[in-house]
Each structure stands twice: as C-alpha cells, then as structure tokens.
Amino acid sequence: MTVHTLSHLDALESEAVHIFREVAGEFERPVILFSGGKDSIVMLHLALKAFAPAAIPFSLLHVDTGHNFPEVLEYRDRTVAEHGLRLHVASVQDYIDRGVLRERPDGTRNPLQTVPLTEKIQSERFDAVFGGGRRDEEKARAKERVFSLRDEFSQWDPRRQRPELWQLYNGRHAPGEHVRVFPLSNWTELDVWQYIAREGIELPEIYFAHHREVFMRGGMWLTAGEWGGPRENEAVEKRQVRYRTVGDMSCTGAVDSDAVTLDQVIAEIAASRLTERGATRADDKLSEAAMEDRKREGYF
C-alpha cells in the first residue's frame, strides 16, 4: 500500500483552500483585505487557486492611509485589473477631511484605520472579512481563532471566541455581527516566503534589497514622504535596505539587507531572531498591548 504524505507547504495550502471554500459556503458577503503586502498577496493567490478556473466569489477591500509606498499601490492596482476584481477602498484621508479623525502628532495613520474599516464593513454589509494575520507575528494575534467573531461594533472579545477542534469552524453570528477569517493563521513568515518561491508569486520590489534614502527614528530606518520626514537631529543616509512588512510609511521600518533574490531572503529570515513586526513596526510599540487594544476596537 502506497502512503502519500503532504509536505508542510502542501498541508498549509490545503488548510487555507478549505477555509476559503468553507467561507464561500457559509457566508453571503465575504471580502478579502488586500493591501498589496506579501501576506495579502499570498492570500489572494490561495483564493484564486481555491476556485479556479472560476472567478473568486469575493471582492477586495483596502484601508488606504494615504501614506502608502507607491510601489505597493502600483502592484495593488495592477493585480486588481489583471484578475478583473472589484476593489473597495476605505480612505483615512476622507475621514480626516470631514473632521471625523484627527492627524496624530507623530504623523502615523495606522491607528486611524479602525473607523474607516469598521464603517466600510457595516455600510457594505460584509459578514466575513479575510485578513492575512498570522499567529507568529504578535502575541495578540497568537490567541486569535481562524474564525474570529466580531460584535455589532466590530469589536473583538477574546472571551467570546469559540473552540476550533478538528478544523471545524463555526461561522454563526447574529445580525450586525461579522467574522474575521485568517487563512494564514498557522503559517510563519518563513512559510510565506517559501510558498512565494515555490509558486513563483510576484511581489512589489521593495521586499528585496535596494538603495533608498532613509533616516533613523526609534531604532528603525524610515523613508520620507508626504507624511513627513527627518527632524533636525535625524540625518538622511542612502543605504541598501528591504522591507519585511509593508504598512503606513510613517511607521514601517526598513532593515539593512543584501538579499536580492528569493533564496537570499529565505536564508535571511531563517537566521533572524526578531519577528517582522517586532523589528519594523513602530505602531506595535506604542504600548505593551498596542495590538490587542486596537484589535478590541475593531482593527485587523
């Protein structure tokens, strides 16, 4: 008798495909959060695989801070056009212009994403929202369920989460509630990159080493942009860097790197002792529980 076993990447892919199909069968108006970052790119790739050769039965949603990397926005728009997808955009700038939100003194807009996100979910009546969060990223995400129930205010209460035994997912929710779904929960950063290499998935070029003018703030290399730039005591340097994660330019740091190929990036990550968010995201350092506080309010 021949025994067939799946590689760890095949097992992760199979689990994610199952989750996408489960949501398609259980929910009426699912949407995929898609920023053009590597995790959302892998998530979209898996969704396309799950329903091929048919079109995916989901639209996409991007919460636009207005402080995005141009390379990532170009990739986002090109991908949407290539696959004929519908993209919803919730703009933080619109909320600032209307006086609903105020700019922060530090210039970062990542903490301002919650209100545009939750109001877009409510106005479009999305009942399932796919996110690219992984449990290895941050301690608050480590205790997130694959199917994460959110109340009528989009808030997360860890005590209301349901057991998920034997890959059985409970999507029941009351009117006005919705479920955040995380198909990459059991993936690591290294898994994501190995899968990208195996599948030949294209990424924005800023994920690979390149020369860029940066300045040091809070222990991270930041790039100047419309959000602001270096202060008087912050010198601009031209360095060879890459980005491990992509978010708002004002709080996403680059890392020194000479990794210009997928194999080199994979080797670099395998040797790293810092998580991608711990090394490069200032918004997670606002407090010890910064991520959990935002998740309770309705954040990703």
TrEMBL record:
Family statement: Belongs to the PAPS reductase family. CysD subfamily.
Family annotation (PANTHER family): SULFATE ADENYLYLTRANSFERASE SUBUNIT 2
Top EC class for this record: transferase
Residues in the signal sequence: none
Phosphoadenosine phosphosulphate reductase domain: residues covered: 30-253
Enzyme Commission number(s) from the entry: 2.7.7.4
Protein name per UniProt: Sulfate adenylyltransferase subunit 2
A Pfam family the protein falls into: PAPS_reduct
MF annotations from Gene Ontology: ATP binding; sulfate adenylyltransferase (ATP) activity
InterPro entries named among the record's database cross-references: PAPS_reduct_dom, Rossmann-like_a/b/a_fold, SO4_adenylTrfase_ssu, Sulfate_adenylyltrnsfr_sub2
SUPFAM superfamilies found in the cross-reference section: Adenine nucleotide alpha hydrolases-like
Single GO biological process annotation from the record: sulfate assimilation
Keywords annotated in UniProt: ATP-binding, Nucleotide-binding, Nucleotidyltransferase, Transferase
Source species, domain of life: Bacteria
